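Sample 1 of the test manifest.
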Amino acid sequence: MSVNNFVDLDTPAAAALGVPARPGRVFVLPLVVFALFALVPLLAMQGPQSFILALVTRIMILALAAMSLDLLIGYGAMISFGHAAFVGLGAYSVAILSSHGINDGFIQLGVALAVSFLFALFTGAISLRTKGVYFIMITLAFGQMLYFLGTSLAAYGGDDGLTLASRSTLFGSKILKNDIVLYYVVFGFLLGAYLLLRGIVASRFGRVLRGIRENPVRMEAIGFAPYRYQLTAYVIAGMIAGVSGCLLANQTEFVSPAFTTWQRSGDLIFVIVLGGLGSLHGAIIGAAVFSLLADILSHYTEHWALIFGPILILVVLYARGGIGGLLGSKP
Amino acid sequence: MTLTLALVQILNGLQFGLILFLIAAGLTLVFGVMDFINLAHGVQYMVGAYFVAAFTAMTGSFLYGLALALPTALAFGLLLEVLIFRHLYDRSHLDQVLATFGVIIFLNQAVKFVWGAAPLNVPIPDALSGTIEITDGMLYPVYRLVIIAVGLAVGLALYLVVNKTRLGMLVRAGASNAAMVSALGVNIRFLFTIVFGVGAMLAGFAGAMVAPILSVEPGMGDNVLILAFVVIVIGGIGSIRGAFIAALLIGLVDTLGRFFAPTLLRVLLDPATASQTGRAIAPMLIYILMAAVLFFRPSGLFPSKQ
């Protein structure tokens, strides 16, 4: 059975569901984006290298977390307002293991993935029983729950957070201490996650997920149980965000409960709406614009939020489809 | 001694719950009638506290300050409605969440810009600043009792308006089926503006009432907002009765949990571990409670939409 049988072709989603009108052009924008990221360390040598490297590394980490959220919001219509919780879980996995002397990156990553998996499975199983605004609020509340847990972990810094003794080690070597190596590790994860999510979105699973976004009742009628597909997507997104947390802890060499606040979750949503929902690379573009904007504005005034807030409102009110929409990569 | 302490904690929990109710009442009605998620409801609470701080400093009297702060909070809420929120009613929940998030970012910074980042203090009015002996040797601040009394009075008034008047009937009808009410010839937009204004003023009132006992600072509305969301989700969106019961439940569970969790855990664990685990678990209790309620009743305790 073809997908088009149950989705009206004239809905905006139809083009995203079916074969794109211009197959060649779809890959141009992501290709340009990744090529730029790959070249940044070379270009950075011309300027303040460590500043640029740190900034762009942060952008890619933010993009990784935002991209995983795009799977939920853009493709699954699951508006999670607690996605930063997973970033915090990943970051704290690194920091807590490190404070006990376990610095091996693979162990830390494995623990982060396992913890994110369990938390996503548990909270997702409960949250997805609810719909609409209840889902938004329950994910928000689970995120806050983790935040308060973080603030009360007195042994691991509590409110003040925890400074890492060192970055993760790979095969016993402290190679991540080099910012360029860290940069390319983050780049590798971002590229890997992008390709993984592209594959997921294009697969049968992804088509079912988008079908559920358009009309859960019809999907159920033709024999798909939405709950299972949505929960799987929720767990995948949570684990990818957990990875971004691991990388964030390594980049900043510091973790704090503030990583998991609902304001951070709101930032993630802003990033993907800014870049354009449901296109994956939109999350990357959004992350870049978001970070650069915040960075530039904060150079001019400490009250940069006075400008940032209204920009957010204006983007929501007038720039439907985000930057990706303006660049014409999405219908 | 423990009993006396428990009584104090129960009163504190009650007071906290009633403040939450004042905030949640507007939120739940606005959402119930217009299907509009207003994250910026928490800043209304903050703004109320700042207004009362400013006007009290200006007039030298908390009562005058309060009397000036309430209409200002109302006007401020309606201004936001006209400028921004009105354009969001027909939008998706995602757009509403994001745009009102932008309002929060802006206003949290704006109060910092106007009043500075340092917390402001509002003195408790002299007449209410004493303590009262409730039982033998148990002193309780009069002002907190006043908050409880005022909260109960507002709750009762809201109950009467919503359940016994024509306006309340329309609000309830709007919450269960807005399109039908509109089809019957009721100006639902106007009805909503009233509901929104009252809700904004109640949140501002809550902020004004707690200003003398909490520090007035930027971002003070954010955590309260999340708690108000927990309240309306547990109570069932659109239900005043649900919001009232859930608010008291959350207020009591949170306050008593923080107090008793370390003590109770001492039965199972050694004192040091117990107090640490207790402190870690206590703030999570209400979220666990919410998860449990939603697990069994995905639309809350008193859902208003069928």
